[in-house]
Write a structure and sequence with these properties.
alpha+beta; 89 residues; five-stranded mixed β-sheet; 29% helix
Length: 89
């Protein structure tokens, strides 16, 4: 069942999205990201940036978990973090 929350974009992800944050209505991280890709389809850099990003869901790292398995919470937050200079890729 879909829930509502906020996606926050940082650094290159923010530049590619053209917004700092927006709402989601999705049950999983995969659904939220698919909806975001659709919303920003006119911004080709957006999808390319998302592939390189790491994610925090409610302040917890997603790591290598399949985004389909990451359930979202009502009122939760997804942080979209691109690789930072000097950081691991």
């Amino acid at each position: 069942m879909p829930v509502k929350g906020t996606i926050r974009y940082w650094a290159a992800a923010r530049a590619a999205a053209g917004v700092a944050e927006e709402t989601y209505e999705a049950a999983t991280l995969a659904e939220a990201l698919a909806d975001a890709r659709e919303r920003h389809a006119e911004r080709p850099d957006f999808a390319r940036v998302l592939v390189r990003c790491s994610y925090l869901v409610d302040e917890r790292p997603v790591g290598t978990r399949d985004p389909e398995s990451v359930r979202l919470s009502d009122g939760g937050t997804v942080e979209v973090l691109p690789p930072f200079a000097g950081g691991a890729r």
